[in-house]
Amino acid sequence: MFLARKRYATKCALRVTQAVECIGKAIRTNLRRDRRRTRPDTPRQGFAANYAGLITITGLLGRCELPNRVTPSQLQHHHWVLARIDGAELEIKDADSLPDLAIGEQMQVSGNSECNNFRGAASLADHQFKIEQMASTQRLHTPARNEIERTVTALLSSASSASLDANRNLTSANGEHDLHWTLAD
Length: 185
Known about the structure:
The protein is of the alpha+beta class and 185 residues long. 35% of the residues lie in helices and 28% in strands.
């Protein structure tokens, strides 16, 4: 019985939205199967009492396509350079002034946010990345460069979702902006 459910689970789509429908189908199938097995005079135990059914749900959720969850160990000891803001490529001619982000031991962060250098301690809680107690220099540049500066520092100093792609490029996003960082080391 468990193997049949497992085969059914593997046939289900891996997308998260479809996984919910898949779980619903598995539950309905189990409920129908339980109703056929029980005698009319015995109380029905239902799906929740079926331990193998609970394992099936765990198996289904394990196969779902989940967002790429980031852990501190995946971020530590790496250096990224900002490549895009809100999908637009950065047009900076001076490679030395490209915004960058380096995360070291114990999530200590340092970098350049276009005009100024910054440092602080990063936290990663519930897959939300945030640099707490950010300290930075206070230099001014052209209005366009200052706008990039404000966007980068605002996003890094507030809670933002963090994800890594297959090439370990970092994307940090909040409801307003998204930053795509390319791995540089």
